[in-house]
Amino acid sequence: MTRTGPSKKVDATFWQGRLRTARAYHAAAQDSVSLADQSTNCSPTVSNAILAAIAYTDSVTAYKAQVVNQQGHASASKLLRSVLGNAFPDAQERRIRRLLGRKDEVQYGVHAIGIDAARQVLADLDAFAAWAHDVLPKAESSS
């Protein structure tokens, strides 16, 4: 499929599938951190956290405007701002930018990410996920 713009339209239930995916990546990152020690290369853990953040972002934009980001993931925060306007908290914008800013490093880089950095990424993800759940309908976001 050819990309035609910064976002693409999705159906009204798309957000629910992306939320399930977000939760799965989030749980995988949490489980991995709980099993890690100081010698663990946590790059895969951080990668899962970033994939969770992307899926949470998609679920919010799909729910609110039936669109998802189609450009590089660094532009996901711009789409959130476009969709939510001032309802997108600056703290969450900084958080998602920080998470997505690590994507290339952890998925394509050669340096190992340590457990302390992974815990910080997970803390950012936890806060971003809590915010996303507040934006989404309660019955669906808690299931």
How would you describe this protein?
The longest helix is centred in the middle third of the chain and has 23 residues, at 43-65. The protein has helices at 14-35, 43-65, 76-84, 90-101, 103-108, 115-135, 138-141, and strands spanning 7-9, 67-69. A two-stranded antiparallel ribbon has the order 1-2. Helix 1 (14-35) runs antiparallel to helix 2 (43-65), helix 2 runs parallel beside helix 6 (115-135) and helix 4 (90-101) crosses helix 6. Helix content is 68%, strand content 4%. The mean pLDDT is 92. With 143 residues, it is mainly alpha-helical. The radius of gyration is 15 Å and the shape is globular.
Estimate the strand proportion.
Answer: under 5%
Number of helices: 7
What structural class do helix, strand and pairing data support? mainly alpha
C-alpha Rg, in Å?
15 Å
Low-confidence parts: none
* β-strand number: 2
The rounded distance between the terminal residues' Cα atoms is 32 Å
Helix content: 55-70%
**How is the largest sheet built, in terms of strand order?**
1-2
Order of helices and strands: EHHEHHHHH
- Shape designation: globular
* Main sheet characteristics: 2 strands, antiparallel
Mean pLDDT: 92
Lay out the secondary structure.
Elements: E1 7-9, H1 14-35, H2 43-65, E2 67-69, H3 76-84, H4 90-101, H5 103-108, H6 115-135, H7 138-141
Antiparallel strand pairs: 1-2
Helix pairs in contact: 1-2, 1-6, 2-3, 2-6, 4-6
Can you give keywords for this protein?
single chain; 143 residues; mainly alpha; two-stranded antiparallel sheet
Short description, anyone?
With 143 residues, this protein is mainly α. It has a two-stranded antiparallel ribbon. It has seven helices and two strands.
